[in-house]
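Q: What would this chain look like folded?
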Amino acid sequence: MKNKILIVSTNKDHRFLLAALIKKSGFDVEAPSDISQCKGLVDSINYYKIVIDFNLMDSSNQKLCNYLEYTGKLNKSIVINAQADDNLAYRVFKQGGRLIDKPYNSKDLVRAIH
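A: My prediction, written as C-alpha coordinates:
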Protein backbone atom coordinates (compact mmCIF):
# COMPACT_ATOMS: atom_id res chain seq x y z
CA MET A 1 0.00 0.00 0.00
CA LYS A 2 1.25 3.48 -0.86
CA ASN A 3 1.69 6.09 1.84
CA LYS A 4 -1.31 8.39 2.02
CA ILE A 5 -0.94 12.17 2.06
CA LEU A 6 -3.62 14.66 3.13
CA ILE A 7 -3.57 18.02 1.36
CA VAL A 8 -5.22 20.93 3.16
CA SER A 9 -5.77 24.07 1.10
CA THR A 10 -8.57 26.56 0.55
CA ASN A 11 -7.09 27.46 -2.85
CA LYS A 12 -8.63 25.12 -5.45
CA ASP A 13 -5.85 25.58 -8.03
CA HIS A 14 -3.02 25.12 -5.56
CA ARG A 15 -4.76 22.06 -4.09
CA PHE A 16 -5.00 20.57 -7.60
CA LEU A 17 -1.32 21.27 -8.36
CA LEU A 18 -0.17 19.86 -5.02
CA ALA A 19 -2.23 16.71 -5.57
CA ALA A 20 -0.80 16.21 -9.07
CA LEU A 21 2.78 16.75 -7.91
CA ILE A 22 2.49 14.41 -4.93
CA LYS A 23 0.66 11.69 -6.91
CA LYS A 24 3.39 11.88 -9.55
CA SER A 25 5.89 11.19 -6.75
CA GLY A 26 4.13 7.90 -5.98
CA PHE A 27 1.83 8.73 -3.08
CA ASP A 28 -1.91 8.29 -2.60
CA VAL A 29 -3.50 11.68 -2.05
CA GLU A 30 -6.66 12.98 -0.44
CA ALA A 31 -7.44 16.66 -1.02
CA PRO A 32 -10.89 17.60 0.28
CA SER A 33 -12.27 20.94 -0.84
CA ASP A 34 -13.70 21.64 2.61
CA ILE A 35 -11.15 22.05 5.41
CA SER A 36 -13.79 21.16 7.98
CA GLN A 37 -13.64 17.56 6.67
CA CYS A 38 -9.95 17.28 7.49
CA LYS A 39 -10.34 16.83 11.24
CA GLY A 40 -12.51 13.75 10.71
CA LEU A 41 -10.10 12.37 8.13
CA VAL A 42 -7.13 12.87 10.45
CA ASP A 43 -9.01 11.01 13.20
CA SER A 44 -9.90 8.05 10.98
CA ILE A 45 -6.83 7.66 8.74
CA ASN A 46 -3.18 7.40 9.73
CA TYR A 47 -1.67 9.75 7.14
CA TYR A 48 2.01 9.56 6.33
CA LYS A 49 2.14 13.36 5.99
CA ILE A 50 -0.31 16.26 6.10
CA VAL A 51 0.54 19.09 3.70
CA ILE A 52 -1.08 22.35 4.81
CA ASP A 53 -1.19 25.41 2.55
CA PHE A 54 -1.42 27.80 5.48
CA ASN A 55 -3.36 31.04 5.09
CA LEU A 56 -3.11 33.44 8.04
CA MET A 57 -6.39 35.07 7.05
CA ASP A 58 -8.34 31.81 7.26
CA SER A 59 -9.22 30.71 10.78
CA SER A 60 -9.99 27.15 9.64
CA ASN A 61 -6.27 26.62 8.90
CA GLN A 62 -5.38 27.82 12.37
CA LYS A 63 -8.02 25.63 14.00
CA LEU A 64 -6.74 22.56 12.15
CA CYS A 65 -3.14 23.28 13.19
CA ASN A 66 -4.32 23.72 16.79
CA TYR A 67 -6.12 20.37 16.58
CA LEU A 68 -3.08 18.63 15.08
CA GLU A 69 -0.93 20.08 17.86
CA TYR A 70 -3.41 18.96 20.54
CA THR A 71 -3.55 15.41 19.14
CA GLY A 72 0.23 15.20 18.67
CA LYS A 73 -0.01 14.93 14.89
CA LEU A 74 1.70 18.20 13.99
CA ASN A 75 4.85 16.06 13.61
CA LYS A 76 3.37 14.71 10.37
CA SER A 77 2.76 18.18 8.98
CA ILE A 78 4.46 20.11 6.25
CA VAL A 79 3.20 23.67 6.49
CA ILE A 80 3.55 25.87 3.42
CA ASN A 81 3.26 29.54 4.32
CA ALA A 82 3.67 32.91 2.65
CA GLN A 83 3.92 35.09 5.73
CA ALA A 84 6.20 34.50 8.68
CA ASP A 85 4.40 33.35 11.80
CA ASP A 86 6.96 32.67 14.52
CA ASN A 87 4.38 31.14 16.85
CA LEU A 88 3.27 28.64 14.21
CA ALA A 89 6.86 27.86 13.27
CA TYR A 90 7.75 27.17 16.90
CA ARG A 91 4.75 24.87 17.36
CA VAL A 92 5.43 22.95 14.14
CA PHE A 93 9.15 22.49 14.85
CA LYS A 94 8.48 21.57 18.49
CA GLN A 95 6.54 18.50 17.36
CA GLY A 96 8.91 17.65 14.52
CA GLY A 97 6.96 19.00 11.55
CA ARG A 98 8.38 20.97 8.63
CA LEU A 99 7.86 24.50 7.37
CA ILE A 100 8.28 25.57 3.75
CA ASP A 101 8.13 29.22 2.70
CA LYS A 102 6.43 30.46 -0.45
CA PRO A 103 7.55 30.65 -3.11
CA TYR A 104 8.87 27.12 -2.83
CA ASN A 105 10.61 24.68 -5.11
CA SER A 106 8.45 21.63 -5.81
CA LYS A 107 11.49 19.37 -5.39
CA ASP A 108 11.94 20.70 -1.85
CA LEU A 109 8.34 19.82 -1.06
CA VAL A 110 8.72 16.28 -2.40
CA ARG A 111 11.94 15.84 -0.38
CA ALA A 112 10.16 17.05 2.75
CA ILE A 113 7.45 14.43 2.22
CA HIS A 114 9.97 11.61 1.84
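The chain has one domain: 4-113.
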